[in-house]
Predict the 3D structure of the following.
Amino acid sequence: MPHLIIEFSQDFNIELAIKLGREIQQHMQQLIEGKFDADQCKIRYIAYNNFTVGYSSQASFVHLTLKILTGRSIETKQKLSELCFASMQKIYQCNNRLDLSCDIVEMQKETYQKTTITI
């Protein structure tokens, strides 16, 4: 069910972004035991061609947003954030400045809707 959105500057290697997504998916599966179905995790990779980071046109960025349903403890969300950030720091590749950031966002159970349609 979680939504993992990895946004990055177009000079960041897409294969590294995909590797990052899979690693974070594994972290979530271990941390949220019994309440996480890896088959329901949606991972989106979005590369930006037009961007600026601070004052530098030479800088790069990777921003990760993890959307999860409400009901997790602050400790669980902090641990997820720490694991995500550690994974980001481990696989970065850049010749210039690279800004890394991540955010855990809660989706309201009462308003979130989802279905799977098999064709």
